[in-house]
Amino acid sequence: MAENYKIGKQRIRYRSRQFKEGKTVTMDILNPSLNWTNGILFTEVGKGVYFLDFDFSQEGTYTALLYEDGEKLTSQNFYISKEEGQLSISTISIFRGPSVINN
After folding, report:
1. DSSP letters for 83-95
2. Domain span at residue 60?
3. Cα–Cα–Cα angle for 1, 44, 102, rounded to 5 degrees
4. How many domains does the chain have?
5. What's the CATH number where 12 sits?
6. pLDDT (tens digit, 9 = 90+) per residue, 6-57?
C-alpha cells in the first residue's frame, strides 16, 4: 500500500534491525518514470535511527528498497501528489516493516 505525501523534500527516518548502531543504511528508489537511483546513503543519528532528506520531484508512485550493510530488509511505496506552496520538510518514518508514520 502506498503512503500519500506532497511533492518536494521529505525526511525519511529508518530504524535499524534490533536498533543496531554503526550500520550502513542505503536506499534504492524507483521513481514514477521507472528510473532507479541506487545507493542513497542515510545519516545515523544514534540509538539505531537513521535519516535521509529526499526530494520527491515527480508526482506519482515511488518504490524504495532499504538495505542495512548491503542486505535488503524492507520496502515501501510512496504516492506523491502535487501541492503548491509546501515550505517545510515532512517526515516519513520507516520502522522495519511496511507501515510508515508521518510525523
Report:
1. -TT--S-EEEEE-
2. 2-98
3. 30
4. 1
5. 2.60.40.1930
6. 899 988 999 999 999 999 999 999 999 999 999 999 999 999 999 999 999 9
pLDDT for the residue numbered 16: 93
Whether the CB-CB separation of 72 and 66 falls below 8 Å is answered with yes
- In contact, 89 and 10? CB cutoff 8 Å: yes
Residues 13 and 92: their CA atoms lie apart, in Å, by 6
Q: Which residues pair with 65 in a beta bridge?
A: 28, 75
- The predicted model scores a pTM of 0.79
Residue 32 lies in a domain: yes
Cα-only R_g, the chain? 13
